[in-house]
Amino acid sequence: MTILYLLIPLSLILLGLAVWAFFWAVKNDQFDDLEGPAHRILFDDDDNDLTPDQRAERKKMAKPPRDREPPP
User: Please, are residues 28 and 17 in contact by the beta-carbon 8 Å criterion?
Assistant: First the structure.
């Protein structure tokens, strides 16, 4: 029975944190676009769809990875 004196306030604190996290997410627009990321995967730009000139231009614009940078 005495454990309830610990568990009830603890559960109320956790509930308060969950409600705060929900309202924070709504305020910071976390739920604005739920379908966008799913559709973005389907319409990703593939290099195979580009002309050879566009592929060369894209490679020129891309930054090289840090581990493959040419030595000075």
Answer: no
Any alpha helices (H) in 1-72, and if so which ranges? Answer: 4-27, 36-42, 52-61
Distance CA 44, CA 68 (A): 25
Alpha-carbon separation of residue 25 from 14, 21, 38, 43, 62 (angstroms):
16, 6, 20, 27, 33
- To the question of pTM greater than 0.70 for the whole model, the response is no
Q: Summarize pLDDT for 26-48 with one digit per residue, the tens.
A: 999 888 888 887 777 777 666 67
pLDDT value for 10: 98
Which residue in the block uniquely carries the two structure tokens 């009830």? 8
Length of the chain in residues, anyone? 72
